[in-house]
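Sample entry (256 residues):
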Amino acid sequence: MVHIPSEPATSLPAPTTAPLPPAAPAQAPASQTLSRGIRILELLGDAREPLAIDEVARRLGVHRSVAYRLLRTLEDHGLVARTDAGRIELGARLAALAAGVAHDLQSEALPELTAVANDLGMTCFLAVLDRDECVTLVSVEPRHAVASVAQRPGSRHPVGIGAPGKAILCVLPRAQWPATIGAAVEAEVADATAAGFAVSHDEVIPHLHAVAVPLPLRGRAPAAIAVVSLADQRPPAELAARLRAAADAIRDALGG
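Predicted structure, serialized as tokens:
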């Protein structure tokens, strides 16, 4: 038998590759369950009336069993409650949580809003900027008015609509405005800035008139205080002067 000598083994050079770029930090996935629970609270708040579980499920776009489990968890925390008919409404625990939002601002604003509401006989409220929306934080109706408008805390609308939103835009840098703000609203805000107050008619709610002044606050997103009514014959500048005095008092109480 003939033996053929084998060639000495040689090691192949390791392939050279360019170093990989550092991986981008992974974004933490959103919690679908938490998102759905929050969405239920928003649905109940917008509904203005208790909803059946089937209706919650339909609006949320989930099976009834999923909605039921979410509602049970929210109910355990006092965030929703059941009526005698078994329908779902927001729970009292939410009021306690809402009271903690900008607690010092609410505390200082409440007596001033109350005084304005009773002086003018109009509903007076404080609105704050929340991303691209204007949100009512606290509202006071006049004590002895024959008829007044209820402005529900938590109600929201795009910041480019209504007097409070435009008053907020007066003190918000243009670069921070929502991209949806058009030329017409920009012109209205320019007029409001020059006048020192903003007015609106039939914008957020049909037939309502509103006057608002900006409330810039150090270290916070800008806010506004406003009065709203079905009809008022007093000049807007007169109403704005009273609002401006209240805004100054709130800002001074909060240290500017």
